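Much of what follows relies on a compact textual record of a protein's fold. Think of the row as the fold of the chain written in a discrete alphabet. An example makes this concrete, so a full record is given next.


***
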Amino acid sequence: MCGRFTQIKSRDDYLAFLVEEAENDIPYDPEPISRYNVAPGTKVLLLNNRDNSFHLDPVLWSYAPGWWDKPPLINARVETAATSRMFKSLWNHGREIVFADGWFEWKKEGDIKQPYYIYRKDKKPLFFAAIGKQPFDVGDEAEGFLIVTAAADKGLVDIHDRRPLVFTPEAALEWMDPETTGAQVSELALDAAVPADEFTWHPVTQSVGNVKNQGADLIKNTSDKI
């Protein structure tokens, strides 16, 4: 993980948990985003803090700097991102938040890979830790962003051994703060992630495997007897 997720609510619904009273250049938009199958290689709304103001930019979900001669990456491991050649500068100076409602994982069950939708038990928004090359309103579009992942724990490991690093609203603000040092955010990543026992999941349709598919049916619980 993370390879697929949802952005369903409106940007205002997400922002209400974070920056309602803060300085920002984000226009009011109450319309739901309604993306039920967000895939790598597409542009995703990314919240970032630069020039003493919050910005919401559409940024490509993948990362491939000019010297990289392999397929673009979509995730960065929290255990190594702070020190790796690839990600150290992003960890120190390019931290953002991705809004989400839940994410998808696939688990091998017999001869098939069964997709599951994972989300908070209280249905609150998720704030994924992300890193990328700022500023996002200029420069090479190929140098987009990555979602930071951590080792799964407790029940989540039954679905997949990795999961996105999900922050509380308070931790998300600290993560984006340019004044927060790389060492401080390393501690934040260890101490302020939403714990696994606050999540739940259910099986969903195989249709989510096709990135062209969208709609609320993709997150419907297929184990429900209706």
In short: The CA atoms of residues 167 and 193 lie 5 Å apart. Helices lie at 11-15, 88-93, 169-176, 182-191.
